[in-house]
Amino acid sequence: MVDEALVARTPDEIRALSYEWRAAGKTVGLVPTMGALHEGHLSLVRKARSECGKVIVSVFVNPTQFGAGEDFDTYPRNLENDRELLSEAGCDAIFAPGVAEMYGEGSTDLSSGERTFVEAGRLGDVFEGKDRPGHFRGVATVVAMLMGAAVPHRAYFGEKDFQQLKVIGRMARELHMGVEIVGCPTVRESDGLAMSSRNANLGSEEREAATVLHRSLEAGAKLAADGEKDVSTILRRMRGVLDGEPLVEPKYVAVVDAETLEALESLGERSARILIAARVGSVRLIDNIALPFVRSE
Ligand code: AMP
Q1: Whole-model pTM?
Q2: Residues 11-69: pLDDT tens digits?
C-alpha cells in the first residue's frame, strides 16, 4: 500500500507545506507538469526523489502558454490517474490548482494587459516561440508563479522541451530566483518516439509516422558523429528522411548552439543540438538530440 501524496489546491497551502519542510532541514524539489503523466514525467520525479528530501509535483494546464486555436481544451487531463502514479513514484505533495487559484477570480481575461507577466527575451522568440507567439511568456510566467508558490531549492525539467529548459534556466539565473534548474534526459517509447502527453491524441497511422522525428534526428546525429561538419549537408539528410512520411509536416529543423540556440552553419568546438518540430494530423510534436563534439584537426 502506497502512501497517497497530499494534494494542495492553493499557492498558500503548498507554500505552507514547503516552509514546514524547509524549516525541518529538508531539500525541496519541484517537478512542474501539465499532468496526463507518463514515464518521461516520472523519470523527473524519480530524479528529484533521489536528490531531495521532499518532492512536490505540480499538475496545472496553464492557459497563458496556449495560443488562440491551440489545444488547451483538448489537452489530456486525468488527475486521479496522475495521483496514483505520483503516489507510487514517491511524490510527497501534488500541487493541483485550478485556473482561478493561480490567476485569481477575475482570470477569464488573461490578455487584458492588467496582469504581471515574465518576458522570456530572445531565447523565447525563436523556434517554438516564433511558431507560437507568447508561448514562452506564458511558460516563464507560470514557472515563476510555481516557484513562488512551492519555494523549492531545485526544479526539474526535461530535455525533451530543450528550448523551455534553456528559457527557464536563464530566467531563474537572471531573476535571482535562487532555484537550481536541473535538466533530465528525454525518455522515449521503444520505437524512439519521445514520450509526450500529446501522443495520446495521435491516430494509429499518425502514431507510426511520428517516429520519423526521431529517425531524422538519429540520421543527422550519425552524420555528425561520422565527421560531417557542414550543417546544410546534415539538414539535407534529415529532410530526406522526413520526406518519406507524408503524414508529417515539418515546422522547423535546425542545428543550434546548445546554449544560445543560435543557428549554426558548421559544427565546431561548441556544443550543438538539433531541434525539430512537426505537425502530425492535428498534433504538434517537438524533439531534439545532442550532437557529439566534432574536433577540428
Ligand atoms: P509537460 O507536462 O509536457 O509540460 O511536461 C512537464 C515536464 O516533463 C517538462 O519539464 C518536460 O520537459 C518533461 N517531459 C515531458 N516529456 C518528457 C520526456 N519524454 N522525457 C523527459 N522529460 C519529459
Answers
A1: 0.96
A2: 999 999 999 999 999 999 999 999 999 999 999 999 999 999 999 999 999 999 999 99
C-alpha cell at 255: 542545428
| Residue 8 identity | A
User: For residue 187, which atom of ligand 1 is closest to its CA?
Assistant: 20
Q: Which CATH number fits domain 197-288: 1.10.260.40, 3.40.50.620, 1.10.10.10, 3.30.1300.10?
A: 3.30.1300.10
The phi, psi pair for 226, rounded to 5°, reads: -80, 0
User: Which of 137, 116, 113 has its CA nearest to residue 125?
Assistant: 137
User: What does the pLDDT look like over 207-221, one tens digit per residue?
Assistant: 999 999 999 999 999
For residue 158, which atom of ligand 1 is closest to its CA?
12
Which residues make beta-bridge pairs with 32? 58
Q: Which residues contact ligand 1 via a Cβ below 6 A?
A: 33-34, 40-41, 43-44, 157-158, 160-161, 184, 186-187, 194-197
